[in-house]
Amino acid sequence: MAVSGRVPQGAAHGSAPVFFLSYARHHRGVEDKTGGAEDPDRWTLRFFDDLTFEVAELTTLPRHARPGFMDREVRVGQDWPRRISEALAACRVFLPLYTPRYFTSLSCASEWYLFQARQSAHELTSGARSEAIIPVLWLPMPDTDLPPAAQALQFDHHTLGEAYARLGFLQLIRLTRFKDEYQLAIHALAREVVRVALSGAPQAAKPVDFTTLHRHFENAEGLFDAAGDLVRRVGGRTPLSLPGRRPLALPPGTAMPGTAVRGTALPDSPTEPAAAPQSSADEAVTAYVRAAQTKLTEWFARRPHEIASADFDDFYFREVHPAAKAALVRHLTPHAPDGPSARPPRLRSLPTAEQPPGGAPHVL
User: Fold this and answer.
1) Which long-range contacts (CB under 8 A, 24 or more apart) does 4-8 make?
2) What's the Cα-to-Cα distance from 274 to each of 35, 238, 259, 268, 271, rounded to whole Å?
3) Phi (first) and psi of residue 354, to 5 degrees
4) What is the C-alpha to C-alpha distance for residues 153 and 170, in angstroms, rounded to an integer?
5) Secondary element (H or E) of residue 190
6) Nearest-angstrom CA–CA distance, 261 and 303
7) For residue 16, which of 57, 61, 54, 74 has the smallest C-alpha distance?
8) Is residue 144 exposed (0-12), middle (13-18) or buried (19+ Cβ within 10 Å)?
9) Alpha-carbon torsion angle 287, 291, 297, 302, nearest 10
10) What is the pLDDT of residue 74?
11) Average pLDDT in the 325-345 region?
12) Is the pLDDT of residue 98 over 50?
């Protein structure tokens, strides 16, 4: 299934989901679909509703807006994978609900990977590190059971309460005697979600169909490992120079004819000309790099694990190079030189007596 290439509406002015709840769904058996059995995800749904309420109270979102997104069910007549992909591309905070089943779910791993790819692309292109994955203990899990991508997260679960850190949200929400601890923990989590949403959210991206990752990875372990590779490879890297952030400069000590070398001042004399504007060659190089980086950033946000693949080579020569070349050509239009144009030479016959032997005319 192809996903629209547009950035989800509202991502730029605050109507995108504040948080995305990623969890391992319980699949109902045939006997459960009659409605006689309880919903196996009822506690997760209640947790989501309570957190949504708390986040809404801490923000100024409109009344009709729901600050959270949860993959509740595949609804008839709706393109649910597309909605999940758009929410992943625009949400500000990612909340994985830790259970043993979560880290064996290919869908959960795909959601984590795509959000981590957004964070890595944001860090490479802006230079600012985004840490918008907040782990949530649904059931307590030792760190040794977590994949490296999860172990790399820096979050102190004790800040949500000792009972939560020891038991997880499932026990707090199920047992009446932990009602107060549950309310305090859910409120503390909501405050953390809002804080991260306002200060550490990655830039919105173009939606990517998360199900396409299933063709490249056989299990969740491979996807979580790929997410961990993103963290290791991007961390500490020099950020890319995003298109339009600052103009490119010629190398030190070089200049186009008729221009001053960048970083040096012309003599302060009223008789000498002022510094020339940025050269057309510099502008052309800037345009070329700007177009190329725009295309390359799109690829990295979608499929960074395939940089060395043949698909990437095809993408580069099919889209990146033509777009960059077209931008370069647009800036290489010839310009007439300043001042009066030189008079072109012309041929004129001299009188017969003045013509040299052979009768060739003089060039004047």
Assistant:
1) 4/82, 4/86, 4/207, 5/206, 5/207, 6/206, 6/207, 7/89, 7/90, 7/204, 7/205, 7/206, 7/207, 8/86, 8/87, 8/89, 8/90, 8/204, 8/207
2) 82, 35, 9, 9, 9
3) -90, -10
4) 22
5) helix 179-199
6) 41
7) 61
8) exposed
9) 180
10) 47
11) 66
12) yes
The pair of structure tokens assigned to 307 is 């940089």
Contact 150, 224 (CB under 8 A): yes
User: What's the CA gap between 43 and 41, in Å, rounded?
Assistant: 6
**Where is 212: in which H helix or E strand?**
none
Rounded Cα gap, residues 250 and 278, in angstroms: 10
Structure tokens at 295: 């295309």
Compute the distance between CA of residue 296 and CA of residue 129 in angstroms, rounded to an integer.
20
Instruction: For residue 195, give every residue at least 6 positions away whose Cβ sits within 8 Å of its Cβ, in sequence order, or none.
Output: none
Q: Rounded CA gap, 228 and 149, in Å?
A: 4
Instruction: Please write the tens of the pLDDT for every residue from 201-246.
Output: 998 888 888 777 777 787 888 888 888 888 887 765 555 544 444 4
Query: CA torsion 81→82→85→91, rounded to 10°?
Result: -120
Q: Which residues contact 102 (CB under 8 A, 6 or more apart)?
A: 22, 23, 24, 96, 108, 138
Q: Note whether 83 and 202 are within 8 A (CB).
A: no
Residue-by-residue DSSP string for 99-160 = -TTGGG-HHHHHHHHHHHHHHHHHHHHHS-----B--EESS---GGGS-HHHHT----GGGG
Token output for 359: 């009768």
Structure tokens at 33: 């679909």
